[in-house]
What does this fold into?
Amino acid sequence: MLEIIFIIAFALYFIQTFIFIVGIRKKFPVLTDEHLPSVTIIVAARNEEKNIIDCLNSLKLLEYPESKIEIIMVDDNSTDGTAQLIKEFVKDDDRFKYLLADKSFGTVKGKARAIANGIEQSKNEIIMTTDADCSVNPKWVYSMAKYFQDDVAIVCGYTSQSSEKLFSTIQSADFMYLLGVAAGAMNLGKPLSCIGNNMAYRKSVYNQIGGYEAIPFSVTEDFQLLMTVHKLKSYKVIYPLDPGNLVVSKPCPDIKSLFWQKKRWAVGGMNSEIAGFSVMASAFVLHGFIIFGLPVATSSMIALMVSKVMLDYLLLKPIFKKYSLNLGLKNFLAFELYFIFYVFLLPFTLLFGTKIKWKGREY
It folds into this structure.
């Protein structure tokens, strides 16, 4: 009986992963250079004095027509030296603007409030967001903006993490795997997730849905925005695999901060649709069977476990190759072990409540 249940769980996981792999490879039409839209980049920064200069330096190197770009650095009421660092950096570059997030928008709070401040001051149709602990590819704006055909409302990009040690390398593989799943599903019409540090959307559509003020609060404001736009059923939301759209973020420095990051995502994921819950449920069940079933596994079950690992590799490898990233076997196997346990254990953290601690705030 155990073997039959495991085979069913694996079959569902296999079907889903195959669908994701197909979706990841989907191609989209692009605009010609003369039709590229004007873009406003918004970066919300809160107590990021250790990271903000790296972010600013990468933004300064962006390759996009100067007449079509503005960069708004929003100080989310930092209590360290972030604001002064931004002001000093941007004073000699007309593309940049410093903004203090001092305006309220209904009950909007946290990062969403800072972004809403930036959007209100923006002058361009396409809004792009990244985080203050991120560095962007010089082709980032071009590689996102070129996909904004008239019927496209949101374009999402991939984010890896700077990986110098095994702990950060595992996080990078985790990011790319989860975003691969998100991309595969979104490109086939079923958005499951996105990441706000690499996201672009139309300001007119943002205003159409009433902005963050009209969206129910979520600790994952990017996901909430995505799903609200998707429910309009009037526009496409896409996730192209494009070598120029990569953003690199700083990894969580320790287990504690990684825990709060994952719990924040889990709490935000509670607003998912049925498709999202089914994907999470199938992964939870399969990984649970691997953890508890391995001591009594039959030869066929072990073969399926090995097949599961190979299947995950087939999803990850093309993404790493597209972005010229190294997915070594040792690093991949370490990620796989980590992934099996955390996917199974993460839902249990919600049993202790949904309070989140992030960037010095509690939600």
Observations:
- Residues 299-322 form the longest helix (24 residues).
